[in-house]
Every structure is written in C-alpha cells, then in structure tokens.
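Batch 3, record 17
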Amino acid sequence: RLLAKEAYLNDAVAPGLTDTDTDDSELEEAEDPIDAQEVYDMIAHISDPEHPLTLGQLAVVNLPDIDVRENKDKTKISEVIVKITPTITHCSLATLIGLGIRVRLERSLPPRYRITILLKSGSHQSENQVNKQLNDKERVAAACDNDQLLGVVSKMLSTCK
Amino acid sequence: MPITLLKSLELHSDKLWSIDSAKGLMATASSDRKIKLVNLRATDIREVEELDDSTHKKSVRSVAFRPHSSILAAGSFDSTISVWGQDENEDTQGTFQETELLAIIEGHENEVKSVAWSHAGEFLASCSRDKSVWIWEADEMGEEYECLSVLQEHSQDVKHVAWHPSMNLLASSSYDDTIRLWREDSDDWECVTVLNGHEGTVWCSAFETSESQLRLVSCSDDATVRVWKYVEEGDDGEDIWTLEAVLPRIHSRAVYSVSWSPGGFIASVGSDGLLVVYKETELGTWEVVAEKEEAHGVFEINTVKWANVNNKELLLTGGDDGNANVWSFDP
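Prediction for the assembled complex:
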C-alpha cells in the first residue's frame, strides 16, 4: 500500500515537471489509463502455491475475466474486478490464490482503484464463502499482519516481473 | 454545504482504523501499530502524544475512552487489549504528563476487532475473529480486569461492539450478517434479540441518545444504513425489535462506520469515500442533509465519530490514507 501510494504521487508530479504549459485535462490525458492487459500482466506471473506453474499458465487468471472500470478523473475512484477460475472446484487454496492476487494488485495499482476478486461463477463449491473472505478488507489486512502467511504470499509473488 | 474541513492531520503511515474522542482529546488507531492522541480544543488542533508503539505487535484496530476518566482501551490484531491512563494523584498542573500502560488484557484467541466501555465505565466489551464477545469488569484504577462472560452465539467474526449511552445494553455486529443485543440477566449476559436484514457483513452500529425511545443504527457491506427500533418485550424473555427505516441509499460500496449524534443526526462513511449526514424529518423518515465526496481523497474511510468540543459539533473521520480529518457541521 505504501509503495503504491508513493508511485501514485510520483506519477502525479512527473508530467508537471516536464511540461509547464499543459493544463490539468491534458495532463491527465498524458497518463496512460490502466487496461485489462496491464492488470493481467501484473498477476499472470504469480506462482501457484502447489504447482510449479504460474496462474496465467494454469488459466486461473484469464484476460477476458478482468474488468477495468476506469474513471477518467484521477481524483475519483476507479474499479478493477478480477474473476479467477480455480483448477478444481474444491480447491482448498482458492482463498490463498485470491489473497496473492489482491496483495499484488494493492501494491501495484494506485490507491484510487477499488479491487474486487471473485471466483468465476460455478468454479468452486464454496464460492460465496470464498468471495466474502477475499473482499473483506479487515480479514485481508489481518492476513497481511500474519508473517507466516505473508511469507507464503511473498513466495508466490517472487516470480512477478 | 454545511460540512467544512477544519484540519487534516497526517498521523499514520498506514490505514487509520478507529477514532474515539472524549474531553477534547481524540485517540486514533492504525495498522502502523501506533496509537496517537490529538488535542481538539487547541486552536491549531495538533497531535500531543504517541503512545509506546512497542506495545502491540500487529495493527491496532480499535480505541475507546472510558467514560468519567482519562483511561483509553485499545484492541489489536495481536489478540490483546492494552489499557492506558495517567497517574491522577501526581501534581502535574501545567506540565505535560506521559500516558502510561496500565494493563494488557489477554483472552481472545486471535484478532481483537473492537473494544467499547459501558456508559458508567464499569464494563469493557471486546470482540474478535474468534467469534466471541467478552464482557470484562474493570476496577476503578483500570488495572484489574475480570471476565464476567464469554458470549459465543455469533457464527462468524464479530466486527464491532457498541454500548447504549445510558443503559447496560450491548450491540455486537458480525460477519454473519446479523446484529445481536445483549443484556445482563441475573449474573450472566444473555442475547435478547437478533437483528436480521442486512445482506452482508455488519461493520458497525450505534445507539440513539434518547430517554423516550430505544433505537440502533447499523451499516453493512451491503452498502445500506438501517435504523432498528425496540417494540416490546416478548413472551419468552426476548426483546422484539423491528426495522424502522433504511436510510437513503447514497453509498455505492461497503459502509464501514456510523455515528449517531446526541442532537439526532446520523453520519456514515465507507469504501466509496463519501461522508454523509442524515436528518430525521419525521419519525422514521430520513433525508440526506450533507455529503462530502472524496472526504479522504481517493482513499476508503474506515471510521466516523461525532464529537462535541467547545460547544461545537465536530465530525471526526479516519481513512486508509492514515489521516484523521476534523470537520465542522452546521445544521
């Protein structure tokens, strides 16, 4: 979160330093909006916790299942919704995989993005339960306070570019 | 717009989770493991103290001032509760006095999510991801705590506890989408009602300050704010409550915190960054009288509290930006 905040601040300041004549609207257009492909590239290289493959290779994350609802006004909230497909419908690691994706996106995206991680409909027997847990900010924050769990997540993220 | 920003305090380097205020002081709790105190009476509204940050090993999730004292309780994800105070016997007129750790309360199995003191300061309630609510009896000094009851009727994490401002009645909000109300009954605490209706985690609740009626406001992941009303005592010793109103649906995402002012206004904040104030136009009918978009910029807002300082109604908010914002509200 802190890294994301810093990156966001740098992004906001940099264009103004190079071109003093641009007004606010041009300045914002100069920034590339984030698209689904970029979000995919951020998470596709995350390692699966039990296979020697990435989430992209296992088709747990897929480009068509990423939805970016970009608000052009950078002072407003934008949304990223990622639907994941666990490899098996009773995958016990679905929550851990979802957590890894959320941590990766929270660290990489500017803070204006609200991130929703969902299991693709019909892909898991405890769909609602897992979805609720993955999108509970307090549970996610508590998980990130757990050194052991964070260690596992860091290992999953170590293959990200 | 009757809501005006008086001061934005950059207090924490991570999420600011909880705010409480008493006697012109504001306390804040954060994921950066720190607890800070701010003087709201000073014209420049400034930070006065940072409590010993080696006390908690994980996020501090909740802070609550004990009524009629200068004691502060804090609940942490490290599963403990810390209690802080000042030595009131010493002659410290005009000199700054450091707040000291009075007690560490252990008992919960994992993350403590909320702490709250009863109106007379007699009981401390706490709740946790371990699905339980504990009621502690405190001695006058705030140093000794005896657990009176462990309430285990919620089926999931308990997110928040709130006491009634003048009765020993406790509300607990949960990840199981319900609110439970608890009352003391011949030496034990019993669940007197379950409020069903929210379609998602209930994040917070607050009682109305009123002599004539008994009401509770709650907010949820389902993006709604609801007012519940006590109807009558049922045959089986349970209390009968009913949903009186769903407040105007102005939030677009989870609503994390609500506060009911002694003057009758309700304030709510949440993931969408909106700070909203509602007014009751006639009994059970509410309208939005003020709203502030991006009240913490693009960040989520976790907590809102009304505070009366120097006879002015203030709104205190805390967000993921680590800031506490102090707002004036002119009805």
